[in-house]
């Protein structure tokens, strides 16, 4: 149940992005649900591999390169999912940060540690 709630929270965070940034579009809630699912899969399967492969650059940049990885993955998912569009890399960079903050805030407010 917690996994489904997290998925819905992430979809709501995606739906909030077009109201904060005009360079991000999400056509409907169905698209947001699909994009949230793909983002979750990409962050679970591909992101750890990229973080390990870019560890020297991440170390030299004091961890800031992880933000670039997040932006590239966010931008890549926007290219994969129809109805979810991000204008460019810098839009994806800011959108990935906003998406993380919004989903973190909603998760903190709506999910409690003891809830299942």
Approximate strand percentage = 5-15%
Whole-number tally of structural domains: 1
Main sheet overview: 2 strands, antiparallel
Number of strand segments: 2
Helices and strands, in N-to-C order? HEHHHHEH
Helix content: over 70%
Shape by Cα distribution: globular
Uncertain spans: none
End-to-end span in angstroms?
6 Å
**SS class:** mainly alpha
- The gyration radius over C-alpha positions equals 14 Å
Strand order in the largest sheet: 1-2
Mean pLDDT: 94
Q: How many distinct helices?
A: 6
Quickly describe the structure:
This protein is mainly alpha-helical and 116 residues long.
Features of the shown structure:
single chain, mainly alpha, 116 residues, globular, 5% strand
What is this structure's SSE topology?
Layout: H1 2-20, E1 24-26, H2 29-45, H3 47-53, H4 55-60, H5 65-80, E2 84-86, H6 89-110
Antiparallel strand pairs: 1-2
Give a structural overview.
- This protein has one domain (2-110).
- The chain has 6 helices and 2 strands; from the N terminus they run αβααααβα.
- The protein has helices spanning 2-20, 29-45, 47-53, 55-60, 65-80, 89-110, and strands at residues 24-26, 84-86.
- It has a two-stranded antiparallel sheet with strand order 1-2.
């Amino acid at each position: 149940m917690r996994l489904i709630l997290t998925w819905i929270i992430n979809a709501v965070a995606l739906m909030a992005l077009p109201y904060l940034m005009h360079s991000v579009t999400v056509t409907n809630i169905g698209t947001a649900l699909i994009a949230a699912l793909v983002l979750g899969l990409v962050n679970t399967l591909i992101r750890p591999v990229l973080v390990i492969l870019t560890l020297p650059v991440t170390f030299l940049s004091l961890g800031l390169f992880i933000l670039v990885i997040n932006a590239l993955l966010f931008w890549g998912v926007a290219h994969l999912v129809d109805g979810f569009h991000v204008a460019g890399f810098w839009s994806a960079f800011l959108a990935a940060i906003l998406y993380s903050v919004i989903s973190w805030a909603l998760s903190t407010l709506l999910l409690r540690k003891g809830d299942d």
